[in-house]
Automatic annotation (TrEMBL), chain A:
It is found in: Cell membrane. One of its GO terms (cellular component) is plasma membrane. Keywords: Cell inner membrane, Cell membrane, Flavoprotein, FMN, Ion transport, Membrane, NAD, Phosphoprotein, Sodium, Sodium transport, Translocase, Transmembrane, Transmembrane helix, Transport, Ubiquinone. GO terms for molecular function: FMN binding; oxidoreductase activity, acting on NAD(P)H, quinone or similar compound as acceptor. InterPro entries: NqrB, NqrB/RnfD. The keyword Oxidoreductase does not apply. This is Na(+)-translocating NADH-quinone reductase subunit B. One of its GO terms (biological process) is transmembrane transport. It is a multi-pass membrane protein. Its EC number is 7.2.1.1. Its main location: membrane.
Length: 387, 450
């Protein structure tokens, strides 16, 4: 029996009145995953673009793959570094070690998030939305590698339930769910999830770590105004530094950005304006220059921490970003500006990108409101001029 | 000198099955129909019953809310069926034609030397009035109003669209005469929109009108796009629009006193064996038009009008009142295994997420499948890329869904009709019925304003 006829055979069980009607959304999600539905148009546009949200989300995931693979290797590399064994570990040893560390986080994120999505869809009687396919990949990439799995699970659950489902699901949310998961973890477990130990696998335990080895991220180093101890710009650009799993390699992120921009799925205006905002704030600090952190060349901000990752994958979320074209420029610019501002001024938390994007998520509707208002005013003015 | 307007937002959908430049005179169709659904918001009242004899130009129904607007039979013959749908909704008045056509004769006199009121009166009586549509709302023009301008798009940029120079071939004089009549109806100008890419001698030779050239992808040929560039509609303003073939029909009325609605339509699409032009009479059944000319090995969709905003009809259905093309495309009623994950060399998409971007000039066979399930608005910036209006489409759509009349008005509902949103609907990865939403909004506005 072919797969299709098997599905057709069991389908009635999941439809209204069937034995497993409670699992209709779940069934539908799996069916439409395997087969694009045969539903045809009846009115309006008789033809439809081949693209759907599944396709779009898959492209974003493909764009995340370079960062993910690099992140896996870097987890192994940083671990070897902490043991003082960089020269003896092979490439595959590092990658394999990292993969074993990262995969459980990915699995936990997807299982928890998708589980909640399926339940929420069933409760509403909707089809399961594909939005979490991307969030579920973003969450592991912005986690410190030593984050306990239960924390990942709790954070993900919080983000999906309170960040998304209570607002009505994908498309209705105000905050970027992945960032919300990260913010929840940061604020709920501050003692366990910050400091210099969580960024490198095994450092918390401390077994076999080289004496005096510091797992501090470049951001933490800069924060302490020890800028001469920063890794080279080349190392930071390539990503040979401690940090959240997917955020370290600016190069891998730029490959993802290229994919998103080329396919027309990621918004280049937001990406560009985030970098512009960061550069402007960096240059302003250069002028003020009252401490070594302020004197850092502006582009250091792009290659340290999660700035690039946030600019490419987080700020561009089409749901939580500004939705008007002019609004996107303003929104992106402010995201970059605030990120650098928070980094340099906020003593409690070195990474400003997460807070900056969440803050601007809040303001995006306001920015849009003003842009739309100006459109309305233009229309009214046009009417008066004519009369 | 004419103005050139560049339309930078839009999309040309490359489909297989454009019409060859061959014009065939179609035989008399087995039947002709007048379909109230072709006229938005119309509540029709019948004037005929089954068995009545009619001539070309005999009124068969009128508008319940404006008795002067009558709808005429396109041919002479016998009313053979009055088809109704749910709740006795009038669907079709079907007329079986006589072999020898007879025409009502209207004493139009010299349309150019009488007053505006008299011209309106003649157009109403002869059944020509429904040719003229108005914006806002995209409904039949209200004869008691005077528009600030009349806009005629002289090319169609939608996929598989016919070439209007071919549609009007041999009808040039009637077209010019029709334009002269229309000039009497407005205090403003009559605007012709032509394609900047090639010259259209028929239209460019027209005198006493403003000719504007439009350059760019679809919807550059939509009259709504052209209005928005030349003279966007403000609250309280009215513009009229009319199709060039209907202008020629008005010209024929002026010349002969007959309601003569012959037109040329293009039969197009991947499932038409020999896509070409046919000379038909408005409202013709397609039953014997394409006999044997359609691929028969799979199920197909017949669309009267463009594939982006036309109407689904049956294989024995009738060509719509305002339509200049008949498209036949495959139905998409099959499951596709991992369709969303395939490389997609053969899939047309506005996004470059399928490998079809490797072949930028290839023509595609598009079917009627949704290619995905309906979702909430997610990709908020895709719509604006194919929507060349100074309007925020998602905001307007959300205002309509919220039935917020005030917001709809502020956000520009007067400037648009559903076809302006057709491309938004096409590219929408969330598969939302955008044109239906826009029509709902327009109907709400009509109700609110009256």
């Amino acid at each position: 029996m072919s797969l299709r006829s098997f599905i057709d055979k069991i389908k009635p069980n999941f439809e209204k009145g069937g034995k497993y009607a409670k699992l209709q959304s779940t069934f539908d999600a799996f069916e439409s995953f395997l087969y694009v539905p045969k539903k045809v148009t009846t009115h309006g546009s008789q033809i439809r673009d081949a693209v759907d949200l599944k396709r779009i989300m898959s492209v974003v995931i493909i764009a995340l793959v370079p960062a993910l693979l690099f992140g896996m290797w870097n987890v192994g590399f940083q671990h070897a570094r902490s043991l003082g064994q960089v020269d003896t570990w092979t490439f595959w040893q590092m990658f394999g070690f990292g993969a074993l560390k990262v995969m459980p986080i990915v699995v936990v994120s997807y299982v928890v998030g998708l589980g909640i999505e399926f339940i929420a869809a069933q409760m509403r009687g909707h089809e399961v939305n594909e939005g979490f396919l991307v969030s579920g990949m973003l969450i592991p990439l912005i986690m410190p590698v030593d984050a306990p799995l239960w924390m990942v699970a709790v954070s993900t659950a919080f983000a999906v339930i309170f960040g998304k489902e209570v607002f009505g699901g994908t498309g209705m949310n105000i905050f970027n769910p992945a960032l919300l998961a990260r913010a929840f973890m940061f604020f709920a477990y501050p003692s366990k999830i910050s400091g210099d130990f969580v960024w490198i696998a095994g450092l918390t335990g401390g077994d076999g770590v080289v004496d005096g080895f510091s797992g501090a991220t470049p951001l933490a180093i800069a924060k302490s105004n020890l800028v001469d101890k920063l890794p080279s710009a080349y190392d930071m650009f390539m990503g040979y530094i401690p940090g959240s799993i997917g955020e370290t390699s600016t190069l891998a992120i730029l490959i993802g950005a290229a994919i998103l921009i080329f396919t027309g799925i990621g918004n280049w205006k937001i990406m560009l304006s985030v970098f512009a905002g960061g550069a402007v704030m960096g240059l302003i600090f250069n002028v003020i220059g009252i401490n070594p952190y302020m004197e850092l060349p502006f582009y250091y901000h792009f290659i340290m921490g999660g700035f690039a990752f946030g600019a490419v994958f987080m700020a561009t979320d089409p749901v939580t970003a500004a939705q008007t074209e002019r609004g996107k420029w303003i929104y992106g610019f402010l995201v970059g500006l605030m990120a650098v501002l928070i980094r340099v001024f906020n003593p409690a938390y070195p990474e400003g990108m997460m807070l900056s994007i969440l803050l601007l998520n809040t303001f995006a509707p306001l920015i849009d409101h003003f842009v739309v208002e100006s459109n309305i005013k233009r229309r009214l003015k046009r009417a008066k001029v004519k009369a | 000198m004419s103005n050139v307007y560049k339309i930078t937002k839009g999309l040309d959908i490359r489909m297989v099955g454009k019409a060859e430049t061959v014009v065939t005179k179609a035989p008399l169709a087995v039947a002709y129909a007048i379909k109230p659904a072709d006229f938005q918001g119309l509540v029709p009242k019948l004037l005929v019953k089954v068995g009545d004899k009619v001539k070309a130009g005999t009124a068969v129904m009128f508008d319940k809310y404006n008795h002067n607007i009558v709808f005429a039979s396109p041919v002479s013959g016998e009313v053979t069926a009055i088809n109704r749908g749910e709740r006795r909704l009038l669907l079709e008045v079907v007329i079986t034609p006589d072999a020898e056509q007879q025409y009502e004769s209207f004493e139009v006199g010299d349309l150019l030397s009488i007053t505006r009121e008299q011209v309106v009166e003649k157009l109403l009586v002869s059944g020509c009035w429904p040719f003229i549509k108005q914006r806002p709302y995209g409904i039949i023009a209200n004869p008691n109003t005077t528009p600030k301008g009349i806009f005629i798009s002289c090319f169609d940029s939608s996929p598989l669209a016919p070439d209007y120079d071919i549609l009007l071939r041999g009808e040039e004089e009637h077209f010019y005469k029709g334009i002269e009549v229309l000039k009497k109806l407005t205090d403003g100008k009559v605007h012709l929109g032509v394609n900047a890419k090639y010259s259209s001698p028929v239209f460019e030779k027209c005198t006493g009108v403003e000719i504007n050239k439009f350059q760019g992808a679809h919807p550059a040929g939509n009259v709504g796009t052209q209005i928005s560039r030349i003279s966007p509609i403000n609250k309280g303003e009215i513009v009229w629009t009319i199709d060039p073939q209907h202008v020629a029909a008005i010209g024929r009325l002026a010349a002969t006193g007959r309601y003569d609605v012959q037109k040329t339509v293009a039969a197009v699409g991947s499932e038409v064996k020999k896509p070409r032009y046919y000379k038909v009479i408005q409202g013709a059944s397609i039953k014997n038009l394409l006999e044997g000319g359609v691929s028969s090995d799979k199920s197909v969709r017949f669309v009267s009008g463009s594939v982006l905003s036309g109407t689904k009809i049956s294989s024995e259905g009738f060509i719509g009142f305002y339509d200049n093309m008949l498209a036949v495309i495959p139905e998409g009623d099959q499951y596709e295994f991992f369709g969303w994950a395939l490389p997609g060399l053969d899939k047309f998409s506005f996004s470059k997420s399928f490998l079809s971007w490797l072949t930028p000039s290839k023509e595609y066979v598009l079917n009627t499948n949704y290619h995905g399930g309906e979702r909430a608005f997610v990709m908020s910036d895709v719509y604006g890329k194919v929507f060349p209006f100074d309007i925020y489409p998602v905001y307007l759509l959300k205002a309509i869904l919220a039935e917020d009349i005030d917001a709809m008005e502020k956000l520009g509902i007067y400037e648009v009709v559903e076809e302006d949103f057709a491309l938004c609907e096409f590219v929408d990865p969330s598969k939302i019925e955008i044109q239906a939403i826009v029509r709902k909004g327009l109907n709400l506005m009509i109700k609110e304003m009256n």
